[in-house]
């Protein structure tokens, strides 16, 4: 019971840190490039994909488990990346009939996101 409670606490703490980092990055991106396009969410999701790929290479994914994985993957990176924001922002672009930007946001997140996971994995020797 104690171990399970500790796992939950690690995810909560990591998620809080990841969420605060997400807010900082999205505000930075909006200040730098404007808020008309969801640049911050794109940066967050791609860097989070790179991070989880690298983490997976280090911890022998898919056999990873334990406190470190819960804190970093489920907590920090789970709180940092955001499929829900990406989805809502894409829907908003579609509702505004900004078809090209909606398509660009979708393709610019999903394809590079999968590539970033692979790159993170490869950079840390996951394919060796």
From TrEMBL:
It is found in: Cell membrane. One of its GO terms (cellular component) is plasma membrane. The chain crosses the membrane at residues 6-25, 37-57, 69-94, 106-124. Its main location: membrane. InterPro entries: FluC. One of its GO terms (biological process) is cellular detoxification of fluoride. One of its GO terms (molecular function) is metal ion binding. Coiled coil: none annotated. It comes from the Bacteria. Na(+) binds at residues 78, 81. Keywords: Cell inner membrane, Cell membrane, Ion channel, Ion transport, Membrane, Metal-binding, Sodium, Transmembrane, Transmembrane helix, Transport. It is a multi-pass membrane protein. HAMAP family: FluC. PANTHER family: FLUORIDE EXPORT PROTEIN 1-RELATED. Belongs to the fluoride channel Fluc/FEX (TC 1.A.43) family. Fluoride-specific ion channel. Important for reducing fluoride concentration in the cell, thus reducing its toxicity. This is Fluoride-specific ion channel FluC.
């Amino acid at each position: 019971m104690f171990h399970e409670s500790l796992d939950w606490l690690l995810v909560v703490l990591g998620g809080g840190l990841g969420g605060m980092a997400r807010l900082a990055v999205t505000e930075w991106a909006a200040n730098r490039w404007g808020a008309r396009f969801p640049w911050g969410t794109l940066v967050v999701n791609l860097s989070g994909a790179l991070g989880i790929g690298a983490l997976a290479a280090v911890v022998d994914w898919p056999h990873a488990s334990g406190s470190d994985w819960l804190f970093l993957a489920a907590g920090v990176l789970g709180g940092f990346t955001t499929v829900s924001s990406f989805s809502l922002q894409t829907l908003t672009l579609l509702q505004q009939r900004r078809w090209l930007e909606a398509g660009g946001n979708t393709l610019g997140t999903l394809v590079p996101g999968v590539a970033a996971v692979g790159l993170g994995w490869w950079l840390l020797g996951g394919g060796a």
